[in-house]
């Protein structure tokens, strides 16, 4: 059964649970932060697709005090949690919270960067081209796109290691077994080579896998 991201129980435990599920979760965000520190202009406008509870939004607000942000989220409860977390810092005036998808946005070339972290692997295969093409359309020229997703495994060894790793991070065996079942039932996985080909067809350039842990891969691409 697919996880209900609008469940308040799921939302309340998300930030703790995700760190047990995703190898290198903190490291990926540290890398994203470093990339954006290097590439963002002082007054950049950033789109976060699928902001969840707002973890990346909060550290980016702190690191880029003159930037503004638009965040999308399909789960109303997740979006409300992100809004509450930002309001607690007094920075909500810098954020446009959108319940819905970026694919509904109509104004092109408005963002300096688009972040899509742990989202695309949930998008159905037939919908991925439009999903990613819209992110490209919303970027300004020279804007950067950053993603981090589970990719189609290149070896069964990765699938053997992953549940063991997650148990070492704090999951119970039952939770690890449920996680592996969800990977089979709920995720729409694409190979890294097909993902890079798709980004290229859309028009992205300088496509680069800047981090990989097991089958999780982080990509950076530029709208030249």
TrEMBL record:
What keywords sit in the KW lines? Methyltransferase, Transferase
Q: Which InterPro entries match?
A: Methyltransf_25 (IPR041698), SAM-dependent_MTases_sf (IPR029063)
Source taxon at top rank = Bacteria
Coiled-coil ranges per the record?
none
What biological-process GO terms show up in the record? Answer: methylation
According to the UniProt entry, its GO molecular function terms are: methyltransferase activity
Which residues belong to any copy of the Methyltransferase domain? 46-143
User: What is the protein name for this chain?
Assistant: SAM-dependent methyltransferase
Species lineage: Bacteria, Pseudomonadati, Pseudomonadota, Gammaproteobacteria, Moraxellales
